[in-house]
Amino acid sequence: MEDYFERLRGWAKANLLPAAVLLGLILAAGLWFASPVFHGLFIGFYANWSFWVLVVFGVALVVVLIKRGYRRPATFVAGAWVLLLFFFLIFGGALEQVRFYESLEAETLDEIPETDGVRFLPLEVAARAAQNRANEPRVALGDFEPLETETDEPLGYIAPRVPNGGFNVFTYQQQGVAVVDGEGGVETLREPFEYGEGMSITDNVNWKLVQERFWVTLTNPYYSIQGEDEALMLVPYLKYRLSFPVTIPYWAGTFVVHPDGEIEDLSREEIINDERFTGERLYPEDLARRAAESLTYQNGIWNAWVTRQDVPEIPNLDNTDNEMPYLLPTASGPVWFTALEPYGPSNATYTMLYADAHTGEHSIYKRPLDNALLGPNRSFGFVTNAYPDFQWIRAGNGGSETGNVLSLEPRPVVRTDPESGEIVLYWMLSVTTRDSSDINLTAFVDSRDGAVIGLRSYEEVLAFARGEDVPGAIPLEGSGGAEDEGSTEAEATAEEPSSSGGGDTPGGETSPTDLSDEELIRLLREAAERLESESQPPSEEPTTP
Fold first, then answer.
1. Is 341 among the domain residues?
2. Is residue 27 helix, strand or coil?
3. 341 bridge partner residues
4. Residue 330 — φ and ψ, nearest 5°?
5. Can you give 262-301 as a three-state secondary structure string?
6. Is 429 part of any domain?
7. Whether 485 and 393 share a structural domain
8. Is the pLDDT score of 177 beyond 50?
């Protein structure tokens, strides 16, 4: 036995270097393979590396002072450094917002840029249209993203067809994408992705891309349609640069993932100039949202937290999961649009941020403080009051709801008024039923005074959004006044949406289960009175000659 260990010791001594190299290669390969597991932890350190540099520097300074016998100075330095780090932890996030806003270098606009098209379908209706045509049990639809379609056509949506179920995510591929056009038609592109969304573990696209570039933050994937039937997945990624004393994210490049597994790693400049993506959305939505949030700190942290002078905030929109920024088509290409309200309970809009969705350049339009426009959330009330006969969804007794009709997604439409020549911002809302199966009415709310224009025809909606003169685009009487009791007397000039969502059933009947007890009793009493009056013989009164 002693001879055996002696020979083993001799072999290890003679082969120490090759063994160390082999072990290092095995560990490196293992770490590379498992790197996505640790990515979230390490990227959190990397994204805030300036803070950790301060920590390491402070610890090193204290250790040096102690080793040299300067215990009292070391104690003083340690205390000061703890206070500095504590300050950094409190104000670090706000400092990042301040530095991010300064990095925008946003251009100031003199007027609202006109939109060059429209997104006719709200997210909920587009998702319902695609779900109604999904008939493969092993496939589910992932997150819907806006999609630019042909010129002069409304924006559509696209969603990945991901594996459905706990077993399928390990054995099945992403089965292409589902494309919803601007009018609600659904097309399925079935070419599977070797690395896709919803797949586990090593086939997941995020796992593969982290192995390609570890020190980046991946944003949400979206898709570009090339030619007739080729879908490319685009995944923008962020890096971080020092903007003393913090680090801020910036768009560094984009991964282009082909269905066959080919991955292109294009820098920001390369993909902007790539002819395949001319005029398409490239700038990450995450950064467009962050840019809007940073406007809160445009006048510093003290103003953002204490005095709050000229502090805007992004509104939380009612009735929808699709929050701003919204992708809008304009004459110069797609933009990310965010309307901002004043801090507090106000529902006005006085600041609008535009981010070029292709290049990432920012611009800001500000209204005078005494001449703000109606905000997107305010538009819901004007539409409700313009059509008082609709069975709008309302909160009932005991937390229940009554009604079956709601309006969705106030999208901005900016057009030149054909009569006055003034550029006007409208909030475009889609009126539908609870199941969001179809659009029964499209309402345009004038942001200046709340006047409502209701259009049913798809062609009329597109024409109005393009700035054309539409004969049926007449503001409803009384819809532009204040939202009070008097405004509820506005005429309902269109049929109420039907509960089936098709828009063809007159009357907009509501199920008795949607009514409160008081409403049901009232309807039964009215029906009984009508029956009683119809059963009585008509009185014979002399006619007047």
1. no
2. helix
3. 313
4. -130, 175
5. CEEEEEHHHHHCCHHHCCCCCCCHHHHHHHHHHHHHCCCH
6. yes
7. yes
8. yes
User: Do residues 274 and 378 share a domain?
Assistant: no
Helices 205-212, 16-47: crossing angle, 10 deg rounding = 110
pLDDT of residue 138: 93
Structurally, the chain folds into a number of domains equal to 3
Coil, helix or strand for 309?
coil
Token pair 């000061």 in the structure block, residue: 80
Please report where in the chains the tokens 């459905």 appear, as a residue.
Answer: 164
The residue-averaged pLDDT of 64-70 equals 88
DSSP at 307:
I
Q: Is the pLDDT of residue 152 over 90?
A: no
Residues 179 and 65 in one domain: no
Label residue 117 by pLDDT band (50, 70, 90).
confident
- What angle, 0 to 180 degrees and rounded to 10, lies between the N-to-C axes of helices 49-67 and 71-104? 160
Under a CB-based contact definition with an 8 Å cutoff, are residues 503 and 438 in contact?
A: yes
Whether residue 189 is found in the same domain as residue 270 = yes
Residue-number span of the structural domain to which 180 is assigned: 136-282
Contact assessment for residue 191 and residue 179, using Cβ atoms and an 8 Å cutoff: no
Neighbour tally for 50: CB within 10 Å = 17
Torsion on CA atoms 283, 287, 289, 290, rounded to nearest 10: -160
How would you write 162-201 as a 3-class SS string? Answer: EECCCCHHHHCCECCEEEECCCCCEEEECCCECCECCCCC
Shared domain for 237 and 374, answered yes or no, is: no
User: Whole-angstrom Cα distance, residue 373 to residue 536?
Assistant: 57
Say if CB 439 and CB 125 are below 8 A apart: yes
- Beta strands 217-218 and 394-395 are unpaired
Co-location of 166 and 220 in the same domain:
yes
Structure tokens at 23: 């072990």
Domain annotation covers residue 305:
no
Polymer length in residues for the chain: 545
- What lies within 8 Å, CB to CB, of 330 at 6+ separation is 113, 114, 115, 116
C-beta separation of 311 from 304 below 8 A: yes
pTM for the predicted model, two decimal places: 0.81
List pLDDT tens digits, range 494-529: 344 544 333 333 333 444 444 555 554 555 556 555
Instruction: State which H helix or E strand residue 14 sits in.
Output: helix 2-14
Take residue 422 and report the two structure tokens written for it.
Answer: 């003034």
Q: How far apart are CA 112 and CA 414, in angstroms?
A: 7
Residue pair 237/210 in contact by the 8 Å Cβ criterion: no
pLDDT greater than 50 at residue 384: yes
